[in-house]
Design a protein that fits this description.
The structure is a single chain. By secondary structure, the protein is of the alpha/beta class. It is built from seven helices and eight strands. An eight-stranded mixed beta sheet has the order 1-2-4-3-5-6-7-8, with helices on both faces. Helix 3 links the parallel strand 5 and strand 6 (135-141). It starts with 5 loop residues before the first strand and ends with a helix.
Length: 237
């Protein structure tokens, strides 16, 4: 059963100059939680928002694990101000600013998990590993490796470099999850890409990969969503 939580819905102005529409779940104070998870939604140009059902499923899991959980609409989405960028760079800066804002509010937090779904996984990868006092983990779900160039206005190199920085950091933890029936990236393409990542020079991070059988890009069936929950639960526990 999910512990009772306080849910705050509103907006937060961040140092990048935008105001972001946020949904924050606070665990019960008596649980003394020191864990923060922040979830990033799919591409706004195709209707992605913080209310995406797959993110809702993961939010419930994280609530059950006594995390502070932040979902938010990226710039230009819903009630968030600004305009979506074509490269994702501005969204990456917004993410960093929002995390720093919350850590300043809750300095006791010692664990950060950044979870990105689809295009959100690109933005999540831009968040750096923090200092050793805040254990930083990345979970990248349905990373759009095949259409990455088109989704980022041909700035794929920025994301390749960001992943390399994570993989070469001994304090980093990285989990990739994808479906073998993804409509945008074939299983063979994912396998090839994962093999390339495993052969990264200077690989020092804890790096895990979970392919989910019969899952597509949208995680629509109950069975694949259950498998997704189990994969994340096992990895964060």
């Amino acid at each position: 059963m999910v512990p009772s939580v306080q849910i705050s819905e509103g907006s937060r102005s961040v140092s990048t100059g935008v105001t972001l529409q946020v949904n924050i779940c606070y665990p019960r104070p008596d649980l003394d939680s020191k864990k923060l998870a922040i979830l990033l939604h799919p591409w706004s140009w195709l209707g992605g928002s913080m209310d995406e059902p797959t993110l809702t499923v993961l939010t419930r899991l994280l609530q059950d694990k006594n995390y502070y959980v932040i979902r938010y609409n990226s710039r230009g989405v819903g009630k968030s101000s600004g305009w979506p960028s074509l490269t994702g760079k501005a969204e990456g800066e917004d993410l960093k600013a929002l995390v720093q804002d919350f850590l300043a509010e809750k300095p006791e937090i010692d664990s950060l998990t950044v979870i990105g779904y689809s295009h959100g996984s690109l933005i999540a990868s831009l968040h750096p590993v923090l200092n050793p006092n805040v254990k930083t983990s990345h979970i990248l779900l349905s990373y759009p490796i095949s259409p990455r160039g088109l989704l980022t206005m041909f700035h794929a190199g920025m994301y390749t470099s960001a992943l390399r920085d994570i993989l070469c950091n001994p304090d980093a933890r990285l989990l990739l999850i994808y479906g073998d029936k993804d409509e945008f990236t074939s299983k063979s393409k994912y396998d090839e890409w994962v093999d390339t990542l495993r052969r990264t020079d200077g690989l020092k991070a804890k790096f895990d990969v979970v392919p989910v059988m019969d899952a597509n890009h949208f995680w629509q069936s109950d069975g694949t969503r259950t498998a997704l929950q189990q994969a994340v639960d096992s990895w964060i526990s």
